[in-house]
Structure formats: C-alpha cells, structure tokens
Amino acid sequence: MVNKIYNVLFVCTGNSARSIMAEALLNQMGKGRFKAYSAGSHPTGVLNPSALATLRELHLPTDGLRSKDWDEFSGPKASQLDFVITVCDKAAGEVCPLWPGQPITAHWGVPDPAAFDGPEDRKAKVFLDTALALRKRIELMLALPFQRLDRFAIQREVKDIGTR
Length: 164
Hints:
Blueprint: E1 6-12, H1 18-29, E2 34-40, H2 49-57, E3 83-86, H3 89-92, E4 104-107, H4 120-142, H5 151-161
Parallel strand pairs: 1-2, 1-3, 3-4
C-alpha cells in the first residue's frame, strides 16, 4: 500500500529519554509516512530535561511529548501498531502486552544516557550521541523499500538495523 501510514511504538522502561527521542525523531523524519509513539513498561511520568534539551538542539518539536505507560497501546481499543521497537535492554527482556495488529518487533538497544553521571557538558554530549545513534537507525528504516518487501523480509531488515 503506497499511502499507508505506519504506526511505530518505541518502548523503554521509563519512557523519559531514549524512547521519547526516537518518537520525536521519527515523527519529524517520517514526513507523514510514519506516526511514532513512545511508552514505558514503568514510566517515570516525567521527561528527562537533557532529552528535551537535545531535541531542541536538533530543532525537533517537543510539544505533546509525555511519559506514558505501554498499556495505552494494548487492548482492543488501542490503535493498530505496525512496529514495536524496544530501545533499552531492560524493556526488551520484559513480558510485553499483546499489541493490536500483530506488529513487527525489533530491539534497537542503545545505552541509557540518563545513567551518565558527570559534568553537564559531557552529559549533553552523551545525550546527543544517543539521539544521533537513534537517528541513524531511523534513517536506515526509512530507506527500506516497504512496498517491495514481504512481512518476513521487513521483520528481518528492521531487526538487523538494531545491530548497526
């Protein structure tokens, strides 16, 4: 389907930094072909200030971003998801809810920038490096020829992106 809009959920434990940055990046880079969301298995309820500063540095909108529970995206009334991508190792190892639509799943683990303990200038660099790693993986995903690939090929390609 040429005009399909793909729904992508990025999952992390706290939904305060990595998954939030991935949501903002894909919503900007996907140019209407993708709708990104993020959620956490144990959301903190607040966004990491350094993650927000990084998004602003990259000139990405932050309006509407919020830390939310992954239960918002499961169950019969939830939007159908095409992809669920975990971005932290802890969330990847957890038992996930049943996602509507039997989405393609992948793990794109990146180190937690919020775990960095050091000077503010180094912390800003760690957050930027994390955002740039996520951006590179999103670029690879956006370059996939979805119309020419079957579901199994898409699954393989999206999973492989997490190893790059």
